[in-house]
Amino acid sequence: MKKFFALLLALVMILGLMAGCSKEEEKGPGENKYNLKTVKEGYLTVITSPDYAPYEFYAIDEKGNPHLAGFDMALAQYIADYLGLTLEVIPMDFNGIIGEMGTGKADLALAGLSPDPDRQEKMDFSDIYYDGKQAFITSKANAASFSDLASTNKAEFSIGAQSGTIQMELAEEFSPNADIISLVKATDIIAEVMSGKLHGAYVEWDVAVAYQANYPDLVIVCEVPYEAEGNVIGVAKGNADLLKYVNEALHKCVDDGDFAEFLAEALDLAAGENYQGILDEDGKVPTGE
Fold this sequence. Notes:
The protein is of the alpha/beta class. It is about 35% helix and about 20% strand. It has 2 domains: about 1-130 and about 230-275, 3-Layer(aba) Sandwich (D-Maltodextrin-Binding Protein, domain 2); about 135-225, Periplasmic binding protein-like II (D-Maltodextrin-Binding Protein, domain 2). β2 and β3 (about 65-70) form a beta hairpin. α1 (about 1-20) crosses α9 (about 260-270), α3 (about 70-85) packs across α8 (about 240-255) and α3 runs antiparallel to α9.
């Protein structure tokens, strides 16, 4: 019963979030209580890649309608409210996020970002708000082939990773002799692993755990060491005031326990019916997905 009410509260929160995102023009600009410079006056423009449960994805309601969900999205709404701004979320493929931040088209990037130093040319980083880990996964059908990271480094294996991510760098570091396959969406990587087209793949740990809920034949082989552990928010380059107050909001969210609730709610929703990817022009799950 407790889990039921947690899920119900999570759905209410998400529906409220999406109502604000989809009707931002009707809602109008926020008060901007810290007089911050943003891409759009009175709005907090956030870009994300909604193919990364439990970070960001679409939860499907009982009527079959998709609603943006995930702990990054709950955090985005929290920060917007803290700053007195109206939240505006722009979904896109992950490999477009770095470029969009570099051209100043968004205030924040919330997409399970790791603090890779190469990305700091395009954006500033918030403080770490979540200590994520990396994983190597395979299917039960191929599990006997892998015992550790060293066993992945063979030319006979096709190993996947999402393009433009830390996981691609890890694949190149730990499996350089394998046939490394770059795919745009995390969902495609999982599908290829489960179909046997990929022998294994590098993904974020909690993403792997979330997918296991829907794919019981998915196997997490091992944790992958990575020096820059944790997740950060990408902040518009040079916007020191925005960075200051984003960090202030982050610490309050974590210290008050709100972020822990966001995480628990996101994990519950990720275990249910969901879609990971970009919606069509009508805001619907693309036909055939």
